[in-house]
Amino acid sequence: MYLFYAIDIPENIAVGQSFVLDEEESAHAVRVLRYTAGKTIHIADGRGTIYEACITNPHPKHCEVEILGMEPQAKHHPGNVHIAVAPTKNIERMEWLAEKCTEIGVDTLTPLLCHYSERKVIRTDRLQKIVLSAAKQSLSAYLPRLNELTAVKDCILGSDEQRRYIAHSSPWTNKRDLRDELRSAPAGIPTIVLIGPEGGFSDDEVRLAMEHGFIPVSLGEARLRTETAAIVACTMINVLTDCSSN
Amino acid sequence: MYLFYAIDIPENIAVGQSFVLDEEESAHAVRVLRYTAGKTIHIADGRGTIYEACITNPHPKHCEVEILGMEPQAKHHPGNVHIAVAPTKNIERMEWLAEKCTEIGVDTLTPLLCHYSERKVIRTDRLQKIVLSAAKQSLSAYLPRLNELTAVKDCILGSDEQRRYIAHSSPWTNKRDLRDELRSAPAGIPTIVLIGPEGGFSDDEVRLAMEHGFIPVSLGEARLRTETAAIVACTMINVLTDCSSN
Predict the structure, then answer these.
(1) In sequence order, what are the beta bridge partners of B67?
(2) Averaged pLDDT score across all residues of chain B
(3) SS3 label, residue B205
(4) In 3-state terms, what secondary structure has residue A210?
(5) ipTM, 2 decimals?
(6) pLDDT of residue A212
């Protein structure tokens, strides 16, 4: 099965109405998959609905479809996960992280700009393509929200998640084990984890986070790279918040 | 801190005895880090011991050290994890998997040769270097065992792990959720998970595994790529087997 994506599909589109796929999806349907008129395809809107649609005009750039039906899709992952992470110096590792978190289950990804960030610019459009492609590969109708590069201060002040954590390795503050924290959390509670750059968060950043309700946590005994920490935190929230509810 | 590795260090080496680092580690100590005689370094044997040693002859190819002391290191991860996984067609994804599983915590990695494998050869020496480098980066004295490419049949017949799982997506057999399985498992029980290639395991492979005590499992609702499945299974074992013991 191939899942098409159309994040600009109108929310109030009705059965029998028509819609035109964007150039990329049109090319995929008509040029790559060689679909012709009458073929039924599935289109996700990125907000949790999958549309069944029939190709009416197999134009290679503006493929027109008619909506046959729509169905909400249950989220594949139990967590309600916001990973805010400083992009790695090596951008490939950040791209891997975005792909893997999308597959495993993340709701929001925020690239963070920190005091010790070695990477201070990021091409969000490129990252957005990777996230979209991973969501399609996972057959998920939910497209994670990818924010622009955000100063860590703004992320801290703007966070409205009920459970807020900052993963860091500075020795000056007591850290709880994120696993223990999550085991007592019912599934689905909005949770944010901040992950610092290779050089770690500055003391000021940790302090500011703590002043705003972020709990300092460790992700276990092993020393993890930035991108591994993000993937492990994402997996833990999905696996463990589910744990206590059983 | 930089952790040197010497997997050929004799198990019975005593304080006061000398040892020569291999060429790569010698070059790193003397050429890259510019260490001189008298510098104290830490050397892991890959079997759980960290040696404190003093450089006596800073030769750039055969750096000699004298053992000052030794200390066992607790394992960073609670699980006893064997991931047997068919190498991905794109070898970078397999290399990334090996790096991440080593960081997160794996005891044995076995590349599997399956009926639907698209990749039928693999350079284990290259993979070994990646595993070693990830163990060093994690400051772990335990080097995961990396097996040669193994036919899935031989892996199934040779498995002596107490808990055996095969993750697959064929619809013809009932699958348990690996998360539920692990929640009832005390930490540290030897556990193996088989992960198939992009094309999945063949029905014969699943049947053979089931005949030999492997329980068919799913890793959740999301469709995961081979390398993501391996990382998620590895994280689940380390995070969840720990769960029930609390």
Answers:
(1) B53
(2) 93
(3) helix
(4) helix
(5) 0.88
(6) 97
Interface of A with B in 6-65 (CB under 8 A): none
Rounded-to-integer distance, Cα A222 and Cα A66, Å: 52
Q: Domain B80-240 - what CATH class?
A: alpha beta
A3-72 — its CATH code? 2.40.240.20
Could you report the per-residue pLDDT of B158-198, keeping only the tens digit for each? 999 999 999 987 777 789 999 988 887 787 899 999 999 98
Closest CA to B238 of B77, B76, B73, B48: B77
CA distances, B124 to each of B8, B109, B148 (Å): 19, 11, 6
Nearest to B78 by CA among B49, B55, B54, B107: B107
B235 touches chain A (CB under 8 A): yes
Q: Tokens 């057959």 correspond to what residue?
A: A139
Kindly tell me the sign of the dihedral angle through the C-alpha atoms of A73, B233, A81, A107. negative
Domain with CATH 2.40.240.20 in chain B: 3-72
Residue written as token pair 């020795």 = A171
B222/A104 CB distance under 8 A? yes
| Beta-sheet pairing, A49-57 with A80-85 | unpaired
Question: Quick one: tokens of A220?
Answer: 């276990």
Ranges in chain B annotated CATH 3.40.1280.10: 80-240
Q: Residue A152 is which amino acid?
A: V
CA A241, CA A185: separation in Å to the nearest integer?
5
Q: Is A198 in CB contact (< 8 Å) with chain B? A: no
CA distance B111 to B90: 14
Which tokens sit at A51? 């549309």
Strand duo A176-177 + A49-57: pairing: unpaired
Which B residues, 95 through 124, put their C-beta within 8 Å of a C-beta on chain A? 96, 100, 103-105
Per-residue burial over A148-173, b = 16 or more CB atoms within 10 Å of its CB, e = otherwise: ebeebbebbeebebebbbbbbeeeee
- One-letter-per-residue 3-state SS of A59-112: CCCCCEEEEEEEEECCCCCCCEEEEEECCCCCHHHHHHHHHHHHHHCCCEEEEE
The number of residues in chain A equals 246
Closest CA to B212 of B155, B167, B147: B155
Our CA dihedral for A111, A114, A119, A120, rounded to 10 degrees, sits at: 80
Residues B137, A223: C-beta atoms closer than 8 Å: yes
Residues 6+ apart with CB under 8 A from A56: A18, A37, A64, A65, A66
Q: Quick one: closest CA in A to B221, which residue? A: A76
Check CB contact of B185 with chain A, cutoff 8 Å: no
pLDDT digits 0-9 by tens, A4-27 = 999 999 999 999 999 999 999 999
Cβ B21 vs Cβ B45: under 8 Å: no
